[in-house]
Amino acid sequence: MNPPFTLEQVLARADALPALPQIVARILEMLGDEEVNVEVLSGHIVSDPAVVARLLAAANAGALGASGRVESVRQAIILLGVSRVRDITLATAIMDRFNAAPPFDARRLWLHSLGVAICAQEVARGAGLDVDVAYTAGLLHDIGQLLLFAFAPAAYAGVQRLRIDRDIDIVDAEREVLGVDHAQVGGALARRWKMPEDVADAIAAHHASADSGPENEMADAVHVAEVLSHALNLGGGEGARVPRLWDLSSVRMGIDWCQFAAHFPVIEARFVGARITLGL
């Protein structure tokens, strides 16, 4: 029996989602570059009013003890640091453009994705991986869900019902109803958008079993981060199930959970701060 849809059919409808805004493309080009010129970065950011507003809000919220208010993007970059500016800019530019109509809960998806992004940074930091790439991969790991919903809204509502009724992983429900899953779709979409290969590969493999899927450290980081974000209840929503953690992914990331638990309060505090900054 042929599956209801093929990956090629879904990708043919990729125009149902807006193209990546220019500011996102620029931010992606700057991933990992801590020496980026502040003036150049500022010049790209000022083209997006929503990003400017959130950056200034974040800078002023953290400017206790600083003289005067932060009123320019350049000041905000200097105060917040390049990495945090990249996080806020990327999240704002993407979230403000990628929404979906009911019954798809786009806010819940972005809350969850934000939690995964923050967890992925901590996991990646301990494993010696690029924390900026980890944040981006975590933030976009479920982007395939948006495209699947845009492609077949009624069928995707059926996916959600099946997931709840049988208490199964979302990818299993997607494969049964649609014939494809959001990790496959998201990875292919990321490549179509010419995103960094590490990001696209991590999105595509974040639900793969570590002992059956390809070896991919960034995908391991996102997988572990997804499980951790659910365990810490970072935006998963009521009734969200904690996915199975693949032990080999934890081993590859070098995680000793007894020691890593010391990071939990930091992760939770960063998540609360990011929610406030992004208005989620």
Notes on the structure:
This protein has 280 residues and is mainly α. It has two domains: 1-17 and 101-280, Hypothetical protein af1432; 19-97, no CATH class. The chain contains 17 helices and no strands. Helix 5 (73-80) packs across helix 6 (82-95) and helix 12 (182-192) packs antiparallel against helix 13 (197-205). The longest helix has 22 residues, at 106-127. It is globular. The termini are far apart. The relative contact order is 0.14. The mean pLDDT is 86.
Name the descriptors.
2 domains, mainly alpha, 280 residues, single chain, Hypothetical protein af1432
Low-confidence stretches: none
**Succession of helices and strands:** HHHHHHHHHHHHHHHHH
Tell how many strands the DSSP assignment holds: 0
User: In CATH, what is the class of the largest domain?
Assistant: Mainly Alpha
Shape summary? globular
CATH homologous superfamily (4th level) name of the largest domain: Hypothetical protein af1432
Q: What fraction, in percent, of the residue positions are helical?
A: 55-70%
Terminal-residue CA separation: 42 Å
Which CATH architecture of the largest domain would you pick?
Answer: Orthogonal Bundle
Radius of gyration: 19 Å
Tell me the number of structural domains: 2
CATH topology-level fold name of the largest domain: Hypothetical protein af1432
Q: How much of the residues is beta strand, in percent?
A: under 5%
Mean pLDDT: 86
Quaternary state of this entry equals single chain
| Strand-pairing-aware structural class | mainly alpha
Sketch the major β-sheet.
none
**Count of alpha and pi helical runs:** 17
